[in-house]
């Protein structure tokens, strides 16, 4: 036999022996699977080093998921799932770049998914097609709209829903060295053309025995709630010294002049009552919006905050959201998450958020206001509050396969959730590494029962010290199963 043929056979056998079994699973339950240019509907795994644009055809499991098991040599592989058969890169059917970017699992020039293959067999997924989550319905809270104001009509605000807070809480001014009077006049608050306008103006105005150079409005909702989702679609004022806010306070706050204080609920001082800043925007830092929490453990210049820069805070409407559960608060703009608050220890010092809160809408005027300021408007399209309905159940009470899911949120600051599936009882180790392969923190090292599991990482090492921003690896070892994924900490 020709020695070249022998060498090729040897190399092929060597590659096969060194290959690792990798199983890809994608949930297509929210998609209609198509044929594309092929002769039958099918889903594919495709990447530059996974059979090019054609990819590898997956098998329909009959429960909405599609699966492929193949052999890959150790290394890093980028890929996407594709709906339908095509043999060129610019074809339709690919998962969306934008949704993978927003979910935090996109890597590289083409915003692909990535799997790191080592010597142990791994399961990649289950992923919901087009997003970074697992099963499309397995971890989503369903919400029901329970209170809203769409600001239809013209004229004054709905007094059944809102209260004008105008009384100075300390007798002569507002907190934070603010310069405005809050009034209940139509000059400062009115509804027209389907939106609420809160107007801050430069004008001399006397009230409560004090004259100030600016007026504005501060609204309290006459509705309170515990847990749920808040969505406010708003366009913000601009200009140095303007300070619009969408936020919440505990119903029990002891603040003279606040609506719920006047109703007899004011028993607790700030910050023991808890404050949730869904959105703050300072005109001196145009287009940067921030969310923050004020608790007895951290308030004023609180450590608990995060934000993002958007291109059009004052020129277009943007949706500012809070998702509030008994465990955490997640803040986003247009559904892009920028901060999650999840204290590792929940008590009255860190989590005064287990009781009712109410909404506030206002524009404050800071001492840095420019001399050229005349007026600024926060325009609000709607305010909507949803309550949790039911937690969608897993399709299986026990997983069929081992799996390590992509962390959420990603990127994150400072807390993220790591989810993993155990089909059987056994010893489990979950460890965080830096990019040099050094152990940062061991999260789990114990025997666990089968089930769908999760654990939080708060960006600290084994000495409970905060770690720096950057790229980190997290791995799971359970019996013969091992899987590694990447995550990004942004501070």
Structure notes:
The protein has 491 residues and is mostly beta strands. The chain folds into three domains: 3-128, Immunoglobulin-like, CATH 2.60.40; 142-390, Jelly Rolls (Sandwich), CATH 2.60.120; 403-489, Immunoglobulin-like. Helix content is 5%, strand content 47%. The protein has three helices and 32 strands. Strands 9, 11, 12, 13, 14, 16, 21, 22, 23 and 25 form a ten-stranded mixed beta sheet that branches. A seven-stranded antiparallel beta sheet has the order 10-15-24-17-18-19-20, with no helix packed on it. It has a four-stranded mixed beta sheet with strand order 4-5-1-8. The longest helix is centred in the first third of the chain and has 16 residues, at 3-18. It is elongated and about 85 Å long. The protein starts with a helix and ends with a strand. Mean pLDDT is 88; it is low at 3-17 and 390-396.
Shape: elongated
Helix content: under 10%
Number of helices: 3
Structural class: mainly beta
Low-confidence stretches: 3-17, 390-396
The top-level CATH class of the largest domain is Mainly Beta
Q: How far apart are the termini?
A: 62 Å
Q: How many β-strand stretches? A: 32
- What is the CATH architecture assignment of the largest domain? Sandwich
**Radius of gyration in whole Å, from Cα?**
27 Å
Portion in beta strands: over 45%
User: How much is the average pLDDT?
Assistant: 88
The domain count comes to 3
């Amino acid at each position: 036999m020709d020695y070249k043929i022998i060498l090729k056979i040897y190399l092929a056998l060597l590659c096969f022996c060194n290959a690792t079994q990798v199983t890809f699973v994608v949930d297509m339950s929210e998609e209609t699977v198509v044929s594309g240019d092929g002769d039958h509907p099918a889903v594919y795994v495709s990447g530059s080093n996974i059979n090019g644009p054609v990819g590898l055809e997956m098998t329909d499991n009959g429960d909405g998921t599609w699966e492929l098991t193949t052999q890959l040599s150790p290394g890093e592989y980028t890929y996407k799932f594709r709906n339908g058969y095509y043999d060129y890169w610019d074809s339709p059917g690919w998962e969306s770049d934008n949704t993978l970017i927003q979910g935090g699992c996109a890597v590289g020039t083409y915003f692909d998914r990535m799997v790191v293959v080592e010597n142990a067999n791994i399961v990649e997924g289950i992923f919901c097609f087009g997003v970074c989550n697992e099963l499309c319905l397995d971890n989503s809270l369903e919400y029901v709209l329970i209170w809203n104001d769409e600001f239809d009509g013209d004229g004054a605000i709905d007094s059944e829903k809102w209260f004008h807070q105008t009384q100075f809480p300390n007798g002569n001014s507002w907190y934070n060295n603010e310069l405005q009077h809050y009034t209940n006049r139509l000059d400062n608050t009115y509804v027209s053309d389907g939106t609420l306008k809160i107007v801050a103006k430069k004008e001399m105005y006397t009230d409560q025995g004090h004259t100030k150079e600016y007026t504005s409005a501060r609204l309290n909702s006459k509705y309170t709630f515990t847990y749920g989702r808040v969505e406010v679609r708003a366009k913000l004022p601009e200009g140095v010294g303007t300070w619009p806010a969408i936020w919440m306070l505990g119903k029990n706050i002891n603040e003279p002049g606040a609506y719920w204080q006047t109703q007899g609920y004011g028993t607790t001082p700030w910050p023991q009552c808890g404050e949730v800043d869904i959105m703050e925007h300072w005109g001196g830092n145009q287009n940067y919006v921030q969310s923050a929490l004020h608790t007895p453990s951290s308030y004023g210049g609180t450590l608990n905050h995060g934000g993002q820069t958007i291109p059009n805070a004052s020129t277009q409407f943007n949706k500012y959201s809070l998702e509030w559960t008994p465990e955490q608060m997640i803040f986003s703009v247009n559904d892009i998450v920028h901060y999650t608050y999840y204290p590792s220890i929940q008590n009255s010092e860190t989590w005064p958020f287990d009781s009712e809160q109410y909404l506030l809408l206002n524009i404050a005027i800071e001492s840095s206001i420019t001399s050229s300021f005349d007026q600024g408007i926060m325009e609000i399209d709607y305010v909507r509050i949803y309550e949790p309905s039911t937690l969608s159940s897993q399709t299986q009470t026990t997983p069929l396969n081992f799996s390590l899911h992509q962390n959420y949120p990603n990127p994150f600051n400072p807390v993220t959730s790591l989810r993993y599936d155990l089909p059987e009882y056994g010893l489990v180790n979950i460890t965080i590494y830096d990019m040099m392969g050094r152990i940062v923190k061991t999260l789990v090292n114990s025997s666990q029962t089968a089930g769908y599991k999760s654990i939080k990482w708060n960006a600290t090492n084994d000495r409970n010290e905060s770690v720096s921003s950057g790229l980190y690896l997290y791995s799971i070892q359970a019996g013969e199963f091992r899987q590694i994924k990447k995550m990004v900490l942004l501070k």
